[in-house]
């Protein structure tokens, strides 16, 4: 346990024992620093963590006080929800904006608050690289046939075992290994729809899904999506009454950018609605392992009785992004997806497949994941507390149940592209809301990444973005 976490836990224990009562002022930052012989920065981080938990509240010019109310920065019920269902059919064209944004995010020395990727500092690269090196020596003479679809039998077996450990029986013969989840989504989309077809997506939605639709020459219909419960099934049902929808693409668990966990009942309702209409649904499950709760979330696939759910997964967000190993569970569309995989990229490199398979079999994947989840949950709380404290009045944000991104609604006057440019000039990247929709509905929204190790640099970057947002709001 880190020093600031211990201090936070000790203070919370004193509050629960009645030493400090609601409304009591706790020692000032300087006093606590002197009492515990720790740095002021450590005390601030502890107080911010307690503030994010709703245990403390800060009062300007007065200090920190014990509180029993929920943090004002958290999303409650219908906050951040569009005022009406969004059903905008349009040809998708967001790739240029996303590409230019990602290039700036990858710039040297930029603080990566806008990155879509998890920070690799928690990933076991060295272990996996050692397995890859050993596999390369043993399989040096292997030919292309060993990497043909559906993929390495060893990896297929390990993926199936992982699903079984999380409560879902999967036939290894259904799995097709791909070059990351991006290829899996593209293959699944090609298998169920054709150019010109209309695809239903969440609003906001992860831009990789919009890219897949754009690449295939299709159109997107955005469906109102609740920040805590996911896609509005009733709104989708109304759209289906008037629009011919070929497929639906969703991210029900820890959606990027909202971070919600769709309730099981709503998952079931969505699968049943689409099955009744004979509409396939492509499920992006890349963040499924990054939950903050006590148990692994269910999937749409677990409610699928007709093979209409095409489930996509990846190790890029939970284990290693370097090797880009993903997979698809395409249900009744398995043969089409396997054929498209062969026609599109022929193979997926066998060495990374076997290296990951050996890691999953021999090393502590679950132990690694527990460490990642704990870090992300703590950093999410810290970032929410910082945004609450330093962003302009009227700012609202999501309450992620997993993953590593935070969705923020800024005052209406703020243009996220202007804010993006101002932040970039300060060496800070953010994700402008324009990237997550085919409309301008999210012009005053941004997405921030909290996966990087918490540091004074990260804290100062958030403060700076808050000040710039306040400037834009004038």
TrEMBL record:
Alphabetical keyword list: DNA-binding, Pyridoxal phosphate, Transcription, Transcription regulation
Keyword Plastid: no
Domain of life of the organism encoding this protein: Bacteria
Domain HTH gntR-type: 1-69
CDD domains: AAT_like (cd00609), WHTH_GntR (cd07377)
InterPro entries associated with the record: Aminotransferase_I/II_large, HTH_trans_reg/aminotransferase, PyrdxlP-dep_Trfase, PyrdxlP-dep_Trfase_major, PyrdxlP-dep_Trfase_small, Tscrpt_reg_HTH_GntR, WH-like_DNA-bd_sf, WH_DNA-bd_sf
Family of the protein in this entry: In the C-terminal section; belongs to the class-I pyridoxal-phosphate-dependent aminotransferase family.
PANTHER family: HTH-TYPE TRANSCRIPTIONAL REGULATORY PROTEIN GABR
Protein name: GntR family transcriptional regulator
